[in-house]
Sequence to fold (321 residues):
Amino acid sequence: MNQLEALRQWTTVVADTGDFRQLDAFKPQDATTNPSLILKAVQKSDYRPLLDEVLARHRGAPLDQVIDRLLVRFGCEILSIIPGRVSTEVDARLSFDTSATIARAERIVALYRAEGIDTQKRLLIKVASTWEGIEAARVLEQKGIHTNLTLLFSFAQAVACGAAGVKLISPFVGRIYDWYKKSAGAGWVEADNAGANDPGVKSVRQIHDYYKRHGIATEVMGASFRNTGQIAALAGCDLLTISPDLLAELANRPDSDAPLIRALDPQAAQGRDIPGVTYDEAGFRFALNEDAMATEKLAEGIRAFAADAVKLEKLMTEASS
Fold:
């Protein structure tokens, strides 16, 4: 048994990529995409025909609609390979607009349904974990559209997502780790902040245990990993979405060399004394404001995804001219 096989004993393995030709090698259950991953994929020669096909079929349509069709085209290719769900992201530039997020999500869902996809079982709409995004997800879930709340860095975001009844959250382990490492500067000691002591790992563990203790059905999917040590320290999390490079590293490492053990246990969490928490909008915004790391990384993540959406638009405009 290799470490990837060992991890599957307790955790659903998800591939974090737009490069769907790599999926067969790792047999993930689900897959996640985002604007940055799609942008990276369409710049490869293997995927240029998909871009050209979408542009040719929808020439003259508004650019935002063509981009959604490209995202759905990639999603359908991914769904032809994996048995589970794909996550497709709403434009990050709508992160502070609840009604526009709902409308864009519904359009993406309609495009998948037109391709014959059972969207309730096989699609998650990714939305940034802003207050407006979480409120959009609340409405979407009530309409039977399942959501994946992304760019999640704080306990407050997780609590609000659970209260909204979202299907799944994606706390960003690696980006939390990055912030604390940068903040510590020369005082950072890697050995003291690895494994269970990694700040990103600790954040996901807190959220996981809170959800299990209070019977919150929202799935927890750790994301944005920097190394396999972070993955091992979250073995037992509901899901983990992992890049192809790290999937390969796990697959090539025999479990006998470094045996994985279950790090997160929902039954153990149910017995812990963890008080319940609620947030209204003002409380949420204040709690997020008090967390400098989460505030900075959320803003940075939205800016980065928005910038890549602009780059994708530029690439498509140039390709169609």
